[in-house]
Amino acid sequence: MLARRFATMLGAFLLIEGVWGMFSPVVFGVLTTNVVHATIHIALGIAGIWMGRSEMARGYLLSVGILLLVVGILRFIPAMSGIVVSILNVNVAVAWLNIIVGAISLGIAMTSKEDRAVVV
Prior knowledge:
Layout (H helix, E strand, L loop, with lengths): L1 H20 L4 E2 L3 E2 L2 H18 L4 H18 L3 H11 L3 H20 L9
Antiparallel strand pairs: 1-2
Helix pairs in contact: 1-2, 1-3, 2-3, 3-5
């Protein structure tokens, strides 16, 4: 149940941030974005809300957790930082948020059991 709730909440946050990012290069006063970044967040947001209401919340959290961790970590690797910034406009605040939310997503996904229908 926790995985479903977190996936839905994360999806709603990403959807709001993505839509806002279509109209502004900075959302919530500190998170930088661009059209590519915002489009990805809109897609992930819709997927999170949809999967959070189904039995696929755990898989969503695993996927999004890995994606967020990778993007966040790449922002701090000097050889990759320029690429991440130029493609997604990720600043340090976004990178840290990605690392934290990615780790939480993976933690919830790893400790939750998928809901499965029992067929008798």
